[in-house]
Amino acid sequence: MDDPQRVNPGSSADAPGDDAALEEGLSGLSGLSSLSQLDDLLVRVAELAVTAIPHAEGAGLTLLEPDRPDVVVKTAEFVRRIDDMQYSIGEGPCITAAADGVTVRSGSLGGDRRWPRFGPRAGRMGVHSVLSLPLVTPSGVVGAMNVYARAKDVFDQRAEELGELFAAPAAITVQNAQILAQVQRLADRLQAALASRAVIDQAIGILRSRTGCGPQEAFERLRRISQAEHVKLVDVAGRIVDEAVRRASRAHGDR
After folding, report:
1. Contact in structure between 97 and 132 (CB atoms under 8 Å)
2. Which residue, 145, 165, 76, 56, is CA-closest to 104?
3. Cα–Cα distance between 108 and 240 in angstroms, integer?
């Protein structure tokens, strides 16, 4: 009698359907440029991986971010639970795939000796099969995708090949989105810096008009207030500018 935990991953007769699913997933990647939020794009890539890989039930995607916390997204609640557990113990197929830059496959996580802590816990959660695909670009590994199924021995060599065919362009899509997000964060920081500088310059001008001091002395006054009150310099400057605006409004109203 067949093991109810096992599924037939398919035969060569399934190849046309598999190819169509892969084409659908790859086609979906080409339409992701319209998504402006990085997290939304990553979730969609993970969803398309589920479409492209036969028998996949859910997927997670981890984007490695230099000097920032890694971005981790999931397509299903059971994926969230199992990936959260994987990262909390620091062991699992996605971590291995990202670290080594190689595809990792398991059909019986509960007994997989590569992850002696993660595997049994995943099995007890009812998740037995995983296909982890590194997202490899010419500049290196930018992350990894975990594709899960609850039954045992779901992902065969064909599924692995299809997964790798999908992961190659997915990696470029993810990297491009990461670069755009980094550029946007830099632009936001520059804009904030320019706005902060403008407020500080306004506060310096106000202090000079009140006291007759020079620009350096006015700046030092701002700095001393900032240090004494443990408040950011720009916040001190903003307070002085706001106070000057209120005074000017009251004076104008009294006329």
Report:
1. yes
2. 145
3. 65
Please report which residue ranges of 67-156 form alpha helices under DSSP H.
77-89, 93-100, 118-124
Measured over the CA atoms of residue 97, residue 41, residue 32 and residue 189, the dihedral's sign is negative
Q: Residue 28 in 3-state DSSP?
A: helix
Could you tell me which of 61, 91, 97, 95 has the C-alpha nearest to residue 79? 61
Cβ count within 10 A of residue 76: 16
Instruction: Tell me the three state secondary structure of residue 144.
Output: strand
Query: Kind of pairing, strands 58-63 and 140-149?
Result: antiparallel
For the segment 180-212, what is each residue's pLDDT rounded down to a tens digit? 888 887 787 778 888 888 888 888 888 888 888
Length of the chain: 255
Nearest alpha-carbon partner for 113 in 88, 139, 93, 135: 93
